[in-house]
Amino acid sequence: MSNDFTLYFNRVSEALLKTDLKTMEIIASTIINTKITGKRVFTAGNGGSGATASHFCNDLIKGCRIYGRKGFKAMCLSDSMPVLTCLANDFNYESAYAITLETHAGPGDVLVAFSGSGNSPNILAAIKMAKDMGLRVIGIGGRDGGKMKDMCDICLIAPSNSMEELEDLHLCYCHSLVTYIRDKLFDIWDIETIKYPPPAGFTCALFDFDGTVSLLREGWQEVMVSYFTEVIAAVTPDGDINEIEKTATEFIDMLTGKQTIFQCMRLDEEVQKRGSAACDPFVYKAEYLRRLMDRIKNRHTSIKEGKIKPSEFLVPGITDFLDKLKQQGIKIYLASGTDEADVIAEAELLGVAHYFDGGIYGAKDDMIDCSKELVIKQILQENNIAGPSLISFGDGYVEVELVKDMGGYAIAVATDEARKKGINLWKRDRLCQAGAGAVIPDFSNADILMGFIIGAKSTR
Predict the structure, then answer these.
(1) Residues 6+ apart with CB under 8 A from 379
(2) Which CATH class is domain 2-185?
(3) Which end of the chain is more exposed for a tag (fewer CB within 10 A), N or C?
(4) Going by C-beta distance under 8 Å and a sequence separation of 6 or more, which residues neighbour residue 343?
(5) Which residues contact 74 (CB under 8 A, 6 or more apart)?
(6) Please, what is the angle between helix 372-382 and helix 397-405, to 10°?
(7) What's the CATH superfamily of 192-215+314-459?
(8) Which residues are paired to 304 by β-bridges?
(9) What's the pTM value of the predicted model, to 2 decimals?
(10) Mean pLDDT score of the chain
C-alpha cells in the first residue's frame, strides 16, 4: 500500500515538473493586469474543478493583500448555490455560468475556466459569452485540452490523463500563481486605505518636498544618521555603535517633517546627556548640509548642464498628479523642513515651482515662527479652510501627525527613493503609526489616485 502512495505522488510530481512555465508567467501577468486596470477576475468549474475555482478566488481576494491593500476583484461563478440552481432550473444548466457572467462582467475582465475534460457544456458556453463580451479567457485543463483549448486566449494543460492527478495539479498551479503574483504586487502601484477620505471633498493640498516631490536629496537620512552617529560616538567612545546609530535613526525619523535645526537640537541634547558641553545646533546643521551637498552637488550640476532631465529626480508621476489637482481647482501649497531658499531653488531647477500657487514655505533662521504647524495653521486661517478640507502628501512623521490632529486627511508617500519604485516598508510602518489615512508608493497612477481623492464615495 505504501508503494501505491509513492507511485501516485511520483506521478503528480513528475507531471508538475513538465508544466509549461512560460504559460504560467503569461497567466500571472494577465491576472496582475486586472489589478492595475481595476478589472475583475471570474472563475468557474464543475465538481472538483468548481472547488478549485472557488479556492482560487479566495486566494486572490485574501491571499494577495499586500501591505493591507485590497486583493483582486474576484468572483467564482460556481459559488452561489441559489443563483446556480435557479438559472439551471428556470433555463438550463448549460447556460447558468454564461448568464451570471453576462450580468456581472465587462470588457477587459478575465475569465479563468477550470475543466479536466475541456468539454463541459456550461464551461464552453461561459467561454463563448466571455469572448463575445471582450473578456480575456484563461483555460486550466488536462488530458488533450478538449474543445476548451482552442477557445481560450491562454490555456494551461496539466500533463495527465487522470482526473485526480490533474485536479491536484490545478490546485498547485493556483497556489504557485498566487505566490508568484503576491511577490510581484510588492512593486506594483496601489493605494493602501487605512481610513477613507471624507466625501465632502478637498479645496487645499499640502505637499512636503524632499521624498514626496523631489528626489534630489535622496540619501539625506543616510548622511544625517552617519554624521549624528559619529558625533555621539565621539563623546561616548566606549558606547555600542549599533545602539548609538539606532538612537540617532529613531529621533531623526520622529522629527522628519520639522526643520533640520530641530534634529540638530536633539543631537545636542544627546551629546549633553552623555556629559559633553553644549554646542550651537547651527554648527551641526552647517556640517550636515556640507556633507549632504558633497553627496548631491553632481545632481544639481548635471541638471543645469542638461546632462540629466529634471524628471530623473522627481517622484514618479508627480507632475501629472499636480496637473490634475490644478484642473480640479485645488490650491496647492508646499511646506518643507529644508531651508526655504534651497526649496525654492530646487523646485525651480526641477520645473515644478509654478504648481504651488498657494506658496512655498521652508525653514528660516527664525525656526519657531516658520514651524510646519504654524504654516499649516496659517494656510487654513488665511484661506478660511476647515481642517477636513485639507489633504496632505508627505513622507515625514511630523506632517502626517499634524494634519491628522488638525482634522485633515494625510496620504503617506512611502517611496523607495533608492529604487524609485515600490514601498519603503520602514517608512510605511512609521507613517501608519503617525496616523496616515492612506499609503501610496508614488504618484504614477494619477487617475486612480484622483478618483480616490475626489470620488472616494463612488469608489468604495
Answers:
(1) 204, 206, 333, 358, 359, 385, 390
(2) alpha beta
(3) N
(4) 209, 334, 336, 360, 362
(5) 40, 41, 42, 43, 56, 57, 60, 61
(6) 40
(7) HAD superfamily/HAD-like (3.40.50.1000)
(8) none
(9) 0.81
(10) 91
